[in-house]
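Researcher: Go.
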Amino acid sequence: MPVFLHSLSTALPPHCLDQNDVAARAAMIFGDRYPQFDRLSKTFQTSGINQRYSVMPIDWFSQDHGWKDRNDAYLAGASDMFLRAATAALADAGWTADQVDCVVTVSSTGIATPTIEARVFTDMGFRDDILRVPVFGLGCAGGVSGLSIARTIAGGQDAPKVLLVVIEACSLSFRTDRLQKADIIATVLFGDGSAAACISADHPATGPFVQLGKGYQKIWPDTLQIMGWDVDETGLGVVFDRSIPTFVTENFADAAGQALAASSLRHDQIDRYVCHPGGAKVVEAIETALDLPSGILDAERDVLRDTGNMSAPTVMFVMKSVLAAGTTGQMMACALGPGFTGSFLPFQVSGAA
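Model: Structure:
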């Protein structure tokens, strides 16, 4: 059964953090405590990021915070972003909340039980028999994997209307106590954001028409240490290995080839790869691995520049930009996340029925 993307919307939290201000604040916090900070601080200027957004103002990060502070901020920020992204997606699709049969919520940057879609249930106006599918732990792969999960559900026997909401508040994992290189790099890269999509087997009335293919995941054995969270009394601590760009250069093409083969596609049939921009070096590594022209992933770099790496929703920001530019043809969304996992989703964009 063909499955279509009816809308794709994004939302950002209220606090815009200029990269220069973040660098200055990090120097104030880490400069006298972390011997390697001066060397690593150059990354703020070479990251390709001008700004990012946060659920909390910059002064919040100069204070000490434990699990409760961080998670309270996550619950408030994630709920707000859910409401704004989901409401916009429903309006763009011409759906009402009570028409939604299933909501898939993807997030890995906080703990919520009841989960976020339950917390905003009344404000959204969902039916009381809505199917809730919360998904945790996919990290940066969560946007593509979330689209794959939503697509699979929407293509089911009852052809439900599915709302996908992907929310991350990565900034809340900022740590001043561990003094690890990964924490500095996370401070350079990460921001907060959300995206939402309406997906169903109903053919949209107007274009562009985006038909979603079957998703594909690849997990590499013995790679748990590459990316994820450490969990301790203070909160979540980022695991972000320096080998990621090299790993991408050496392994991404083979995984992409397997994903293409699973959908009976070839590399030369892909008009546009739509990638999660994990960082400037990762974007370069993807171009190298896939033998793409240098600089071709322009939308990825633009999103990274304007919002930083928001983890799971970032690839959906890129997808929205590519669609808004009027790009058509056969595409492949792809992202890498904890596991270490590659997530892929082919989709076809046409301007007519």
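Model: The first helix runs from residue 19 to 30.
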